[in-house]
């Protein structure tokens, strides 16, 4: 675990990105299998019907085993899609097995934008989020673009709407003792690594969240 005292967010990002990039292909594959075992049989994953994930980039832990498992079980799965305009906006779009993907401006694979297949973030059941660093208290350090924080900013305004459940996914080596959160940072319910769970949504419980978020889709 990294001691964050005296390190800026930029310094932490640089250090933690170096750590996950340093993992070998074999270590990455092993971490992906362990992550799958941590989540695939958890009641939270089993009960969720609309699950958004991501495709790994820059050494991020790989959730594609979970993506395929969710699709095998008949769940509806989504990937983030960056808007061309406004450029700071991100949406979540349904993805089907074998669907062809394209590269966005960050060279990350995503579906071709199709508004009819997009779902409001508050209508998702579970959002599995990438991160650069995390602490055991729900803190998340992202890449700095703010895409997820902007997408989830409604949670600060709509206290009765805490969907979807937010789980960060990470390698154990990305753990920090404590992160200083900015006013716009959205805390996680838990972070799941290849080794353990950290946070209120631990491996034994599935604390219910409000279902009063309204959506027509």
Automatic annotation (TrEMBL):
Keywords of the record: ATP-binding, Ligase, Magnesium, Metal-binding, Nucleotide-binding
Enzyme class: ligase
InterPro entries: FTHF_cligase (IPR002698), FTHF_cligase-like_sf (IPR024185), NagB/RpiA_transferase-like (IPR037171)
Names of the cofactor(s): Mg(2+)
Short name of any one Pfam family annotated for the protein: 5-FTHF_cyc-lig
Entry annotated with the keyword Lipid metabolism: no
Molecular function in Gene Ontology: 5-formyltetrahydrofolate cyclo-ligase activity
Catalytic activity: (6S)-5-formyl-5,6,7,8-tetrahydrofolate + ATP = (6R)-5,10-methenyltetrahydrofolate + ADP + phosphate
EC number: 6.3.3.2
Family: Belongs to the 5-formyltetrahydrofolate cyclo-ligase family.
Name used for this protein in its record: 5-formyltetrahydrofolate cyclo-ligase
Organism, scientific name: Azotobacter bryophylli
């Amino acid at each position: 675990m990294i001691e964050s005292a005296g390190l800026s967010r930029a310094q932490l990002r640089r250090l933690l990105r170096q750590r996950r990039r340093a993992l070998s292909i074999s270590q990455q594959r092993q971490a992906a299998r362990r992550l799958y075992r941590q989540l695939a049989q958890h009641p939270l994953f089993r009960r969720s019907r609309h699950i958004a994930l991501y495709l790994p980039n820059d050494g991020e832990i790989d959730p594609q085993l979970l993506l395929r498992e969710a699709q095998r079980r008949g769940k509806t799965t989504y990937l983030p899609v960056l808007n061309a305009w406004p450029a700071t906006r991100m949406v979540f779009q349904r993805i089907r097995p074998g669907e062809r993907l394209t590269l966005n401006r960050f060279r990350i694979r995503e579906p071709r934008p199709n508004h009819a297949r997009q779902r409001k973030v508050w209508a998702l059941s579970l959002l599995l989020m990438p991160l650069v660093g995390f602490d055991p208290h729900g803190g998340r350090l992202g890449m700095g673009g703010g895409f997820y924080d902007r997408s989830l900013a409604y949670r600060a305004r709509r206290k009765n709407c805490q969907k979807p459940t937010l789980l960060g996914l990470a390698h154990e080596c990305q753990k920090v003792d404590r992160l200083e959160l900015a006013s716009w940072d959205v805390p996680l319910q838990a972070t799941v690594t290849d080794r353990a769970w950290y946070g209120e949504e631990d491996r034994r419980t599935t604390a219910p969240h409000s279902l009063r978020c309204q959506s027509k889709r």
